């Protein structure tokens, strides 16, 4: 038997699964469903809170009084961590890539409201030294008798991955209630933890789902490695091994577009199309690219073997507001 770590109860679960009737009809292919993980909460909306239910249980059992984590200036993960920390009476230190803007907006505005202490670093420092920088901050706090717990980027490590292990259990239960079998579970991939958790559960429960990720940064090869690393770390918590190899991982590359967090007109047009068609708003950094990629692959006839597809809406809504200027040409 596998040992599943303990968790806190912080997210609004289970999240709904909705069928997108009009989009499915318009594409004339598979039935497309969406799991509304953008509705896991308000302050904690999105996929990160599922991971943090496990991560923060571990942090608290280790006696932490402060959380340290890192991300981009509009990081959903950092905002979710700051919100959850405030709820739990913990302090937060964020290592953010970039420079302090004149006025904070989107996720950064929320970080400020939750009282997060922000440590700005350059893109080079972030890329090469973010973990050392977080360790340095932890040591500084230790000198003041404070106990910090470091969460890696995106909470994408072994413990965090259990958030989507349990999301997969939730999906299996919902399939029974709905009388539907999803052939594929699809999501945007940013640091790989969500994908890793879903694949871990798919292997443990031996279901037939294809787990398909669309990377929004780097490339497929990078994520094969990153996901395998998360899975190896998750196995340490399981205290048993699960047979997963790199060829079980399916990442569809080709939809990063202009680069991480930089949108293209066709992606923004798709965000507007889905909003008008189904009343669902995607974010420009993750779900806008991932869902756009999914519909393009369907149009190209590359997913014809799939009848029922479940896309996980992993949230990110606050990240659309700082990009208002980019959407200006879509105004009537
Ligand atoms: C972080 C994030 C993702 C990617 O999840 P990973 O586990 O980092 O791969 C997808 N969508 C949104 C909105 C996110 O914030």
TrEMBL record:
Keywords: Lyase, Pyridoxal phosphate. Its cofactor is pyridoxal 5'-phosphate. Pfam families: PALP. Residues 10-315 form the Tryptophan synthase beta chain-like PALP domain. It is an enzyme of class 4 (lyase). GO terms for molecular function: lyase activity. Its EC number is 4.4.1.-. PANTHER family: 1-AMINOCYCLOPROPANE-1-CARBOXYLATE DEAMINASE-RELATED. Belongs to the ACC deaminase/D-cysteine desulfhydrase family. This is D-cysteine desulfhydrase family protein.
